[in-house]
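Researcher: Structure for this, please.
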Amino acid sequence: MLITFKSQSSSEVTMYQEHAQRILDVLNKNHTRGVITAAEAAQAVALLEQEIALSKLHPEVDAEHASHSHPHHLPEVDETAEMAEKNHIGFAQRAFPLLEMLRAARDANDNIVWGV
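Model: Predicted structure, token format:
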């Protein structure tokens, strides 16, 4: 399932629900639909930046989250651990578009909505 985040201050950001779920959990927001108000945006940026920093400090935890979001992925016979590591998309990379949207919303005093 896809979640599309919308704000007047930036382009839409669309993410798979399983990737957006961790971000929304950090922000204590509903996965189905919700709003991050302009008043909440600064705190949301700080929380998300903190979670990104933690994921970079502990890449093994980041990889654990990634493996749970794709339980159906079975490695190819010739796939090596090095290739898997190289192809891993971490939390920081997945969160970046929404973090940029949050910063723009904070600076423009706009809300972000999804699921409406």
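Researcher: Any notable elements?
Model: The chain has one domain: 2-70+79-114. The helical segments are 17-26, 38-57, 59-69, 81-87, 91-108.
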